[in-house]
């Protein structure tokens, strides 16, 4: 254990206190070592810097019974309470300024709290309603099937390197420039060995696919929010996750409502109806995802290399879904094309884009941006609107 001087500990704690005073008002006490209590703030170990609940429990469990641990999304600190004060005092004495965190380059800093800041519990996200038509089948494939599927898709010379991931198409190629499927069949169809897996989801009522896109994501990579082009694919899109859990984000194209869903490794996601036609889906590029732990608190899951198999059926006729406002087949046909397209494209690509950018900015920058970005982007994008009308979001 590396011991940092008391002066340095006090400096760190004071600096932290100044930064988070909005979150916790005047509940921090005992800067230095003065007023012990049962409540501890772990100043530099939280969800934002990648600590899991298990890691925090592991550090403190040896000192006594833990009563509560609150980990807050987008915060690099967390708050822990012991059942009794002795346990808190002992852990404070042993760990503060001396316990080496991951990689032994940083030490843990602690501060006592006067009371448990109950308002923090409210920062937990309440469960959200999934868009209709979205279903998740966990353990859809076995570990052996996962391995076979991987063998069928890895090290293929025809893999395409995109900015944030690599892709490979079977059956038909999806052209990311135009966001449309190329209707000339590829020489490589979906491998026959995948038939047992395809049979499983066809039995669930999904249209038999004739197109497969394999995406490989390294930790930190993702896919921008998008709606799979209506005119290119039928309803019922399947995504099978291999090798890693991941969080997929969904956003309503109509009102920007958001839902994030954990896709466990070996699960099968069915995106149909409303979730397919009028919501966007995407994966935020990051190395770990915040999610709910078994005890209902928040924790993080670290991403591994993930391969996903997206099965789709290429459309042979125009899309006639009931979500015409988002349907390129129907918008192209409609007489008031320019008006409607401009409106919808502006809503999707302008307002929701700046909304999205704003949330990313506020995750990594904790000041000013949160309120300024939407305004700045609204003004700027309105000027750009004319040229944006002709563009679609490129994957
Ligand atoms: O990786 C995934 O699960 C989704 C991929 C996807 O949405 C797509 O290729 O259109
Ligand atoms: Fe997609």
TrEMBL record:
Cofactor or coenzyme needed: Fe(2+)
Gene3D superfamilies the UniProt entry points to: 3.30.70.330, Alpha-ketoglutarate-dependent dioxygenase AlkB-like (2.60.120.590)
Origin: domain of life: Eukaryota
Pfam family for this entry, one: RRM_1
Residue intervals of the Fe2OG dioxygenase domain: 208-315
Family per record: Belongs to the alkB family.
Protein name (Swiss-Prot/TrEMBL): Alkylated DNA repair protein alkB 8
């Amino acid at each position: 254990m590396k011991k940092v001087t008391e002066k340095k500990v006090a400096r760190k704690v004071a600096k932290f206190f100044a930064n988070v005073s909005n979150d916790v008002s005047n509940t921090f006490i005992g800067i230095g070592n003065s007023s012990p209590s049962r409540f501890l703030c772990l100043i530099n170990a939280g969800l934002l810097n990648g600590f899991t609940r298990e890691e925090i429990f592991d550090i403190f469990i040896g000192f006594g019974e833990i009563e509560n641990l609150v980990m807050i999304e987008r915060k690099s600190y967390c708050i822990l309470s012991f059942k009794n004060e002795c346990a808190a005092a002992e852990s404070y004495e042993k760990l503060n300024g001396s316990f080496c965190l991951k990689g032994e380059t940083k030490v843990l800093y602690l501060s006592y709290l006067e009371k448990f800041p109950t308002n923090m519990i409210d920062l937990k996200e309440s469960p959200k309603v999934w868009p209709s038509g979205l279903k998740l089948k966990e353990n859809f494939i076995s570990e052996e099937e996962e391995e076979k599927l991987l063998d069928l898709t890895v090290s293929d010379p025809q893999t395409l390197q995109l900015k944030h991931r690599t892709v490979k198409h079977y059956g038909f190629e999806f052209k990311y420039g135009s966001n449309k499927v190329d209707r000339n069949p590829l020489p490589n169809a979906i491998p026959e060995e995948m038939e047992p897996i395809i049979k499983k989801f066809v039995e669930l009522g999904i249209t038999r696919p004739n197109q497969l896109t394999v995406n490989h994501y390294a930790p930190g990579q993702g896919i921008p929010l998008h709606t799979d082009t209506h005119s290119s694919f039928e309803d019922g899109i399947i995504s099978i996750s291999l090798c890693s859990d991941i969080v997929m984000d969904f956003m309503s194209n109509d009102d920007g409502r958001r839902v994030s869903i954990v896709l466990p490794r070996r699960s099968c996601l069915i995106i149909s109806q409303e979730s397919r036609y009028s919501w966007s889906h995407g994966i935020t590029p990051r190395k770990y995802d915040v999610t709910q732990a078994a005890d209902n608190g928040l924790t993080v899951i670290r991403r591994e290399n993930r391969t996903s198999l997206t099965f789709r059926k290429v459309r042979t006729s125009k899309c006639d879904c009931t979500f015409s406002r988002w349907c390129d087949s129907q918008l192209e046909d409609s007489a008031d094309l320019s008006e409607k397209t401009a409106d919808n494209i502006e809503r999707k690509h302008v307002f929701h884009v700046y909304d999205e950018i704003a949330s990313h900015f506020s995750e990594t920058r904790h000041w000013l941006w949160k309120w300024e970005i939407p305004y700045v982007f609204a003004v700027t994008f309105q000027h750009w609107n004319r040229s944006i009308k002709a563009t679609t979001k490129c994957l």
